Amino acid sequence: MQKKIMIAGYGSVAREFVRLILSRSKGIKEKYQIDLLVTGIIGSKGMIYQSEGIQLQELVDFGTGSDALLLYSQHFEIPIIDPRFEGDVLIDCTPTNLENGEPGLTYYSQAIRSGMDIVSVAKGALVHSFKEIMLEAQTKGTRIKYSGATAAALPTLDIGEYSLAGTTINRIEGILNGTSNFILTSMMDDHLSFAEALQLAQQKGIAEPNPVLDVKGFDSACKLLLLSNSLLGTDYSLKDIKIRGIDEVSMEEMLNIKQKNGRLKLLATAYKKEDQVVLEVTPCEIHSHHLLFNVNGTEKGVLFETSEMGTICCTGGASNPKGAAAAALKDFINLYRIG
Amino acid sequence: MQKKIMIAGYGSVAREFVRLILSRSKGIKEKYQIDLLVTGIIGSKGMIYQSEGIQLQELVDFGTGSDALLLYSQHFEIPIIDPRFEGDVLIDCTPTNLENGEPGLTYYSQAIRSGMDIVSVAKGALVHSFKEIMLEAQTKGTRIKYSGATAAALPTLDIGEYSLAGTTINRIEGILNGTSNFILTSMMDDHLSFAEALQLAQQKGIAEPNPVLDVKGFDSACKLLLLSNSLLGTDYSLKDIKIRGIDEVSMEEMLNIKQKNGRLKLLATAYKKEDQVVLEVTPCEIHSHHLLFNVNGTEKGVLFETSEMGTICCTGGASNPKGAAAAALKDFINLYRIG
Hints:
The structure is a homodimer. By secondary structure, chain A is of the alpha/beta class. Chain A is built from twelve helices and twelve strands. Chain A folds into two domains: 2-153 and 321-336, 3-Layer(aba) Sandwich (Rossmann fold), CATH 3.40.50.720; 157-315, Dihydrodipicolinate Reductase, domain 2 (2-Layer Sandwich).
């Protein structure tokens, strides 16, 4: 069956998604009988749309962002138009905006009203209005997947939803942000101060120019929120999470922990306490018996404590645009596969 | 919707499965709209069948095995009958028989012909006749899930099928047998000989009275075979796997590895070599950078190397009948859930 794809946002993740479609679409058609067709891409200055399908091979040669879409439109002599929502699924690759969830929020609403499913790599809209979006989708009978927004290539939601289906999850604990883990690892192993480690991360392209979301713990908190609301049945927002970032960690604290053979990790934790689920993001000293002890550098990891299956821990997954794009492609396949 | 369940084999895993249904069926109905009804259970001496549903609360009080089914039949004054296959799904909890795959093989054939799906905790039939069973199921439009046969509570197939959908898996490597891992761990940490460690494992109920399948590497090989045939598209049987068990590991070898800060693990590995997939089960010396280095005792673990998502490693999962039963319940839910 053919599935028409619209992509919102055309940064590095979206471009990697297009590249993956180019390299994997034949295999996906053979294995899952799903025929992929990208018909529209929305950038910040408007949308390119071709009902017969965007020429992806040409598109990837034009770079990323609105400029790429403009070059494409000039090359193929098609107009840049206002966003319109037609097709089977919207892949949201817009930047994460925690202020008001836009432009994702408006896009989701329009996509859902057009009967489209959504695969999201962005956290903004979901974190801002999780309940409202889910309710709207349920009412219209459309579906939303967001592995790309919950640690991307590291399986987190999948494990909770599929591998632990039918079990009771009592605790979720994760190192969910690669940038802050890289900084903490550099501080501990290379004896750098927070500022030095952050600078190193920025030089390596690991930390963004504005690292606030990562180092203040908000990115981890967003992922934890989505996991908890999805898997533990909570109805929380960011303000319900106790958040402490890593920007106040001192070298003295680090050395003290190192002397005890410990490690400092920014842990995002959801646990049950007297019929309530408590969410916390905070730097924690852990020791070698902890399942996430060896998750270092830009690596991420998550563990689930269950009543029936014991504790299951998953680590790894590429922390880069290709990994995030592959997570979106996985969600897309899992939406439409049969069996 | 109501789903009628038949269980084949009534050992400890099947009994835990029944217990799970008792405790979780209300929650499953609420969350997945699936109404579970166990209508028949096949033991080695025949079957109990009640179209209105077996009284599970009474059943679990009668113990396990054919004796329990006999006591139940006497208590409720129903006959022990020849196996018949009616219902939506067969849960196969029969003992693993690698000789000829029976009685599972006959049951599968009859269940598939009756249009039933299959959830398997047993390895025998699938390892013996993987291709034939899959083909028969495909022809009849029924489905087979077998998490319980591929490391049970540790997610292995799920990760390959769902979390890595659309990626290229280049290597699978796992510690897939808890008993042999316990023995190797005891040999290394407690300086026991193989014979002493095996005896300890038997005393603790970890190793079976006949430990050949575990310590000779066959159990690991069976799981590897099912993973490879399912995820890497191979069409192999056990004879295609190079298998070396742990029963020839000497204390001298162990001490030598320990001096180098290494660990000896029975690794089951599938990797690509010149367009071929090679399968091996063999004790390997690994060091602290290896992702499975800290998988000790009865723990299991698996890693997947992919082209798109990097390496993903999953460890843990209860190695006991309850964990295996929970894996079967998960497969059952994933067969019939909507979305």
